[in-house]
C-alpha cells in the first residue's frame, strides 16, 4: 500500500489544513519491548533512518542485551526509555496484567525502577532518556510522586488521559495510536481505520494546544500490514509541510 491510496485522503486533507495555517503537526514514535538486536529492530531503525524519524525504544532493563546497545549506538535517531524492570505480570488471575501496580509493596516496585534506570544508564549513557514506559501502559498512581526522586523526568503511557497522582515535576507524554489490534488477533489494525483515527486526533490537536501525537509500535509482533502502514505513514508525513517528526525531548517540550 502506498500513501496515495484512498484511505489516506482524510489524513492528507488534515495535514493540508495544518499547512494552510502555516502550522506543522508534531508526531513522535515510541516502540516497545526492545531487548536485543533482531531483524525486526533492524527493519524499524532502517525505516526511521530512511525518513529521518526519531524513535524512542522502550527497553526492558532486566533483559537488555549487549547487541541492543550496539544497535542503538549505530542508530543516531534512536533514544532509549525504561520499560519497567522485567515486564513481569504481578497481578492475580482475572485482573489486567500489571508490573507496576499495588500487588507488591511500593518500596519493592520503586527499588526495581531505581535499578532499571541505573542499569540502562550504564548501558546507554547519554542515549537514555529518563522516561518511564510502564509495561502494558499501566502504573499505580501511588508510585508516581516518587519517580522524580529516582531520576525520572517523564512517564509515557497510552491514550492521553491525565494520570491521577502525577506530580508537576513529572511530564506525561503519551502515545495515541497503536498499530496493533491486540484483541483482534494481534494483527495490524485496518489501514483506513488507522489513517482516519490519526486524522481525527490531529484535528483535535489543531483545535486545542497542538501537542505532539504519539504513534506506538511493537517491532517484535509486526506483520506485513504493520510494516506497510508504517512505511507509508513515514513517506506521507516526513517531508509534508503540515507535519514534523520529533524526538522524545521535542514531544515533552509541548507545542
From TrEMBL:
Signal sequence region: none
Protein's GO biological process: carbohydrate metabolic process
Xref: Gene3D superfamilies: Glycoside hydrolase/deacetylase
Name recorded for this polypeptide: Polysaccharide deacetylase
Species lineage: Bacteria, Pseudomonadati, Pseudomonadota, Gammaproteobacteria, Candidatus Competibacteraceae
Amino acid at each position: 500500500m502506498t500513501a496515495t491510496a484512498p484511505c489516506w485522503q482524510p489524513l492528507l486533507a488534515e495535514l493540508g489544513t495544518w499547512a494552510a495555517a502555516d502550522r506543522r503537526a508534531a508526531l513522535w514514535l515510541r516502540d516497545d519491548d526492545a531487548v536485543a538486536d533482531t531483524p525486526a529492530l533492524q527493519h524499524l531503525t532502517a525505516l526511521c533512518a530512511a525518513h529521518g524519524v526519531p524513535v524512542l525504544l522502550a527497553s526492558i532493563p532486566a533483559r537488555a542485551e549487549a547487541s541492543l546497545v550496539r544497535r542503538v549506538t549505530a542508530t543516531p535517531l534512536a533514544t532509549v526509555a525504561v520499560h519497567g524492570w522485567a515486564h513481569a505480570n504481578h497481578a492475580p488471575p482475572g485482573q489486567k496484567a500489571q508490573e507496576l501496580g499495588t500487588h507488591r509493596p511500593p518500596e519493592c516496585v520503586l527499588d526495581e525502577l531505581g535499578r532499571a534506570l541505573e542499569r540502562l544508564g550504564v548501558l546507554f549513557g547519554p542515549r537514555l532518556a529518563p522516561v518511564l514506559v510502564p509495561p502494558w501502559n499501566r502504573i499505580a498512581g501511588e508510585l508516581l510522586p516518587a519517580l522524580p526522586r529516582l531520576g525520572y523526568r517523564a512517564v509515557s503511557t497510552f491514550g492521553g488521559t491525565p494520570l491521577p497522582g502525577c506530580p508537576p515535576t513529572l511530564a506525561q507524554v503519551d502515545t495515541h495510536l497503536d498499530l496493533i489490534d491486540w484483541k483482534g488477533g494481534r494483527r495490524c489494525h485496518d489501514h483506513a481505520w488507522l489513517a482516519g483515527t490519526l486524522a481525527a486526533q490531529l484535528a483535535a490537536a489543531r483545535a486545542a494546544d497542538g501537542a505532539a501525537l504519539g504513534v506506538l509500535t511493537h517491532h517484535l509482533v509486526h506483520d506485513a500490514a504493520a510494516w506497510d502502514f508504517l512505511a507509508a505513514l513515514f513517506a506521507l508525513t516526513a517531508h509534508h509541510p503540515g507535519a514534523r517528526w520529533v524526538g522524545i525531548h521535542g514531544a515533552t517540550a509541548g507545542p
